[in-house]
Structures are given as structure tokens and as C-alpha cells.
Amino acid sequence: MSISKGLVDIQLVPADWDYVEEGIENVIVSYHGKDPKLQGWVLRLTKCDVGADADVDSHEASLFRNKELQRKQDALEFAASIVSPIVGDEYVLPQMLVNVSTEFLLQVRENIESQRPTKRLAKCIDSRQSASMLTKEMISRTPADNTQDVHSVTVELKPKCMALPRSEFFAPESSVKHRVCWYCMHQYTLHEDGNVSKFCPLELFSGDRDRIARSLDHFAQSPNNNFVVFVDGRSVVDEQGKISDKCVPHWDLLRDTVADIAQKEDLFSRLQLVQRELDSFNIESVLPKYKHAMETGTLTTEEPGIGAWLNTYTEFRKRLDSGSNDDSIVSDCQAVMELILATTLRDVSVLIKFDSWPARNATDTSSLEHSKYTIGVVDHDPKKLSNIPKYHKLDRDIVATYLQHNPDEARQRPCRE
Ligand SMILES: O=P(O)(O)O[C@@H]1[C@@H](OP(=O)(O)O)[C@H](OP(=O)(O)O)[C@H](O)[C@H](OP(=O)(O)O)[C@H]1OP(=O)(O)O
Ligand SMILES: Nc1ncnc2c1ncn2[C@@H]1O[C@H](COP(=O)(O)OP(=O)(O)OP(=O)(O)O)[C@@H](O)[C@H]1O
């Protein structure tokens, strides 16, 4: 990984950028122009509510711009100094901040509008940002070698949960959290009874090749927005909304290859280990600590800057390295920050990109370079401290809804690490 901390000045032409994907907060556009410095890179542009950036020249907009720039610089530092040592340097994509003009942003906004999904249209590219993140392209429209009959294929995994919580401080009605993982319970809030996914993320993190492959099959049956396969830059599903051989060339081979990768790459075990340790208090006991820290002023409504994050991480690392299980020595503030770090890491996506995936008509798949891949995590900006009450409510709702549908403990399907 290489994270450049300065602000880079490059001439950006709106017509050179194509829509790739987006989440709640950011739109990703990829470069297809002629500048070799930008080829193979994407821009991550932040969004705002439609209309919120109407007056780009106001005093408020200028304050907002400075704050946003600081937040993005902190996010770069966060990636380099915290995410990178946790997951491994090799899994964090190279990134840098580039200057972007209002004209550039407004034109890109207009150019990509027709390609955006309806569910995301309440927000648009924020024309007030003065800098955006340039990062390595992980979803590509063209295969690396156009001379062969191959595709560019990227698999996106957003597993959302890596371990069962080990907190001993659960209310009696929450003890189910020791048996059923957060993702499996959440299914009952997100979907109708008959549509809950059979995918369990703990299977994906099991380290057992067969369990991993089976979990990918379950993921493919109910991909939702947690499992996406991009073929030549487009996300694909079959007519039933599933991932199968009908939409992905050699799906069985892809599933097996991804299972091998998930078993072999240290990323998965590192994410699981740190998730287990960081979530040791769980949101249930963190909410009172958060309230207490706010009342006593050890935490304020100001979101933590990079200095506070570095202290949190150093403190956490010291405890982890000493092998101490004594949670009583952890301050309220530290417990809250660790929970936020755990939530940040829980929400990352893992992208695995194959530059030369065999086309459907390829008979000898072994001769193609399908095993050459690039892997990285995306979406690791720190979550907001002010989300703590929301996380607590979500957690309670998830448990309550799960128990409504599964009141009988003997019939609950336990998750296994
Ligand atoms: O709350 P969750 O667990 O549903 O996660 C949200 C994600 O929903 P998901 O369940 O993955 O579809 C949600 O993902 P989508 O945009 O729905 O794909 C975001 O990642 C959201 O993060 P943020 O608010 O943008 O920082 C996520 O919010 P956080 O809870 O991580 O803040
Ligand atoms: N480097 C990249 N190259 C190609 N595509 C990417 C890259 N990074 C992200 N994407 C795609 O864009 C999507 C949205 O990106 P990102 O997760 O950064 O947005 P977000 O708004 O922060 O997401 P969320 O809603 O999960 O918080 C990802 O899910 C992925 O499909």
C-alpha cells in the first residue's frame, strides 16, 4: 500500500470519468482517459442531500469545505496508521487526495445521473468538496489482456459480522447473541420470513475450505447488497436475482477460487481476531459508558480527530499484546472508541479482482490466468461516535425481531465459529 498524505494537483476532465458504483456516502467513478498517471484509478466522491450544496459560495459552504478536507486527511491517516496495521499493509489500497473543482464535480454529477440506481437519488455528488480520494481501481470494464477471450471479474464480499460477541454483560433476553450471529439475526429485520438468507458470515471466516465454499453458495442464493459479482464492470444477477452460472462464466470455478482465497489470505483471520477483541464490551454495555463519558465531558459531541484515534489504537494494542483480559481497566472513553472501531471494520467490503477470468466458451480454464488476483478492503472511514444511540437501538430491534420469529431456543439455528 502507498498512502500519499499531501494534496495532489492533477488536471481532471469530467468526460474522462465513468460511473462505477455507490454507497450511502460516496460515488465511485473510474478513469478512461489517456493520462497514464490516472489509468487504473478511481475517484471516491462524497455525496450530500440533494440541494444541501445549493449555495457553494456561502460562508457555511466554505466552513464545510475546510471541515470535509480535514476529515478526509484524517481518514487517510486512519487508513495508514490504524487500518493498515490491523488488516495488513498489503490489503489497504493505495490512495491519495486530489484537488477537485466545483465545475468538475457538477459536470460529473450531470454525466452520471442517468446511470445511478433510483434508491440512491435522494443524495448527489457534493459540489462543495475541494478534494476527493483517488484510489486503485478494483472493478474494471475491460480485462487486462484484450487479446484473449477473457473477462475482468470482481467479487465484492460485505460479510458484516466476523465473530460471536464474548461480552458477559448481556441482559437475559440478549443471551441469544452468544448463539446466533448479528448477521443471521439481522435477516429477520431486513427481509420477509421466507426470504432470510442462509448465508452465515461465521462460515466464511471459519478457515475451513468446505464450509467457506458452502457459505459462498448460500451468499449466491441471497446476495442482497452484501455479495456482488461484477463482470466487465457491471454487477450481474440471473433472472431470479441470484448469482449463478447463468450470469457468471464458470461460477463454480469462481466460487472455488474465492473459497481458496478466503482460506489462504490472512486478511480474513486478522479481521476476525480484531473484531472479537474490539467488540469485547458490545453495544449493550457501551451505551451507558457513552452516556457517562458525555455527562462527565471525557467525550464531547465533537467527532474524534486522528490524535484520539491513534491513542485509542495504541491503548488497544498494548492491552492485546499484554494478553490482558481485564476489561475493568478500560476507561469509558476507550470502550466507546473501540466499539466504533469494531463497527467500522465490521462494515468494510472485501474486493477480489481477477484481471483475466475465462469467458464462457473457454474449454481449458486451467491454462488461463484465472488464479491471478488483487485483493483489498474498501470503505474503512471511521464511523461516527454520535451513532452510538442508533447502534444500540438497532441492536435491540434486531434481537427483538429475531426472537419474535424464533421464540423457541431449541429451534434457533446456532452459528458456529
Ligand atoms: O447499520 P447496518 O449494519 O445495516 O450497516 C449500514 C449498511 O447497510 P447494510 O446492512 O450493509 O446493507 C450501509 O450499506 P448500504 O449503503 O446499504 O450498502 C452502510 O454501509 C452504512 O454505513 P454508513 O452509514 O454509510 O457509514 C451501514 O451503517 P453502519 O451501521 O455501519 O453505520
Ligand atoms: N477502489 C474501488 N474500485 C472500484 N470500485 C470500488 C472501489 N471502492 C469502492 N468501490 C465500489 O463502490 C461501492 C461504494 O463505495 P464505498 O463503500 O466507498 O461507498 P460508501 O458510500 O462509503 O458505502 P456504504 O454505503 O457501505 O457506507 C463499493 O461497495 C464498491 O462496489
Overview of the structural elements:
It is a single chain. Helix content is 38%, strand content 17%. The chain is globular. α3 (182-190) crosses α11 and α5 (209-221) packs across α6. The protein is α+β, with helices and mostly antiparallel strands and 417 residues long. The mean pLDDT is 93. Strands 1, 2, 3, 4, 5, 6 and 7 form a seven-stranded mixed sheet that branches. The chain has a five-stranded antiparallel sheet with strand order 10-9-8-11-12, with no helix packed on it. The two termini are 30 Å apart. The protein has two domains: 3-136, Phosphorylase Kinase, domain 1, CATH 3.30.200.110; 143-417, no CATH class. Adenosine-5'-triphosphate binds next to β2, β3, β4 and β7. Residues 23-25, 158, 160, 225, 343, 347, 383, 387, 394 line the site of MYO-inositol-(1,3,4,5,6)-pentakisphosphate (5MY).
Give the cofactors and ligands: MYO-inositol-(1,3,4,5,6)-pentakisphosphate, adenosine-5'-triphosphate
Number of beta strands: 12
Give a quick account of the main beta sheet: strands, pairing sense, barrel closure.
7 strands, mixed
- The topology string of helices and strands comes to EEEEHEHEEEHHHEEHHHHHEEH
Provide the helix percentage.
Answer: 25-40%
How confident is the prediction overall: mean pLDDT?
93
Radius of gyration: 22 Å
* Class inferred from helices and paired strands: alpha+beta
Name the overall outline.
globular
Count of alpha and pi helical runs: 11
The parts where pLDDT drops under 50 for at least 5 residues are none
Instruction: Tell me what portion of residues adopts beta-strand conformation.
Output: 15-25%
Terminal residue distance: 30 Å
Taken together, the total number of domains comes to: 2
